[in-house]
């Protein structure tokens, strides 16, 4: 509520001269206020001016903003249009994918494969973790729903795996058979084979049984109850770090089995544990037991051997076994005995570990020495062969002659037994062979003789049924058929023809055949082949 | 000559008193927060180096509680050189059953040293078994000393096994 203004004083009369004085008084009294008023008016004007400027600016900015808004509206509109278009395209694609899944798979597959490949390469573990459960489930579902397809799909892989395993086994089997065959020819092997035969086991069955692989991987000698390890042997070179823990665990398992299944029968024992292709055979004694880790099928009487071994150990060391409190000094060294048991039961077949460095070096040196020795032997052999003709010149005349030639030699014997004869040959000889031989007759001045020389025999056989000709060419008459496989002696060679001799029921036959039908057991030296000339 | 001596040590105690955790803390130096209730038996080795060579403690951690056949457990006790009888300081009933474990052990191995261990000492607010109770039980076991341990923090874990190893060695 606004309060009522106070009553105004009576206005002065302006008709008189008081007006000027009033104005003067007013001017004096209100000078300061007037000054202030003017100042305020000036400020007001300034502010008004400023306001107008601001207003103009604002108008200008609002105009710009309006334009911006327009532009943004346009953009929004365009974007909305694009989104709508994309949604439409997506919908079309979705419908297409539903109707044409094959096509989509074909288009996506190459990219998908690349993506998966890259993911597997970059983050293998994550992929395995992500896919593992799904794959397992997928395989289960697939097997349940389309078992036949799964079998067909997996068959090549499984088939190959099985094939590889079987071939590996076959190789091992073969090696064992070879090893056994080498051992069979001893008196013990013979006796065993005979005994087996008497019992109705054929040698092949016996060999098959023996060839089944069997190896001992480890032997533990463990104290009853406490499970403390008394001795341990591992025939291969692989070191077992936890043998004492294994001893304890075996004892626990054995005790558990006894308590669970023994039903109060103290005689019953856990005799065997199988894990994969390995088995642990347990042979118990009164104070200790043997646990033998084996691979393959144990030989006949293996358990009897173990029983005998543990019994013998007990005879000697039973009190030591019973009183054993973990200090090995209170026990004899039983490791060599275990090693010997392994050797006896496997015949030395143990799992061989990786070769030591020393062994490798030794083996390499031995191989080097063997190579050196072989090289020296080869050199010596070559040297001997090369020197042989010089050291022992051939005394057998070597003749390369025409097939129809029946040389008549006219010799002019001299008094010395050794003679060099230059025969003149008739009728068609084109080569004059030089024969060097030592005649065995006592020459008489008038003697004319035909030397009988032994042709150098080159054993051979007929590679096929082939016609034998009387001369080394195809124009001559075909005499007889030489049957395939007939053993022959090659007497001489002429170009691509060979003169051969062979035995028939009617006597020795001789003739020429093309060399391609003859298989030589050793090559004919080139100097003994007549290469040119016409027969 | 380097000598390797083996000693079988058993961990006895009711279900979930912390036997396995104590063993893990001692052998592997860590506490597994995931709860592991032992089924049957688990054997671990701790090697201690001595003047004469090394001492391998084969620690048999056995299932506690009545739910597993006690006969099987009895067979596991054979040949033990020493044992820790463990109770949970937050559960009074775990102390009252010690008599059963002690008598089982003594029946099979008459002179085997037994050491009482109160585990989970880190749970101060929840503790219900006091030192006086433990002293009483420990005396009845024939042991002068008992240990308060925590597998979680590692308190006294090393000490209790070292103590047992020493008295086992002395006794032998």
Commentary on this structure:
The complex is a heterodimer of chains A (535) and B (172). Chain A has 535 residues and is an alpha+beta fold. Helices cover 51% and strands 16% of the residues of chain A. Among the domains of chain A are: 43-92; 213-346, Beta-Lactamase, CATH 3.30.450.70; 355-393; 396-403 and 451-535, Roll (SH3 type barrels), CATH 2.30.30.40. Chain A contains ten helices and 15 strands. The longest helix of chain A is centred in the N-terminal third of the chain and has 82 residues, at 18-99. Chain A starts with 17 loop residues before the first helix and ends in a 5-residue tail after the last strand. In chain A, 14% of the residues are buried. The model of chain A is unreliable at 1-9, 350-354 and 395-455 (pLDDT under 50). Chain B is α/β, with parallel strands linked by helices and 172 residues long. Chain B has a six-stranded mixed beta sheet, sandwiched between helices. In chain B, 45% of the residues are buried. The model of chain B has no long low-confidence stretch (mean pLDDT 85).
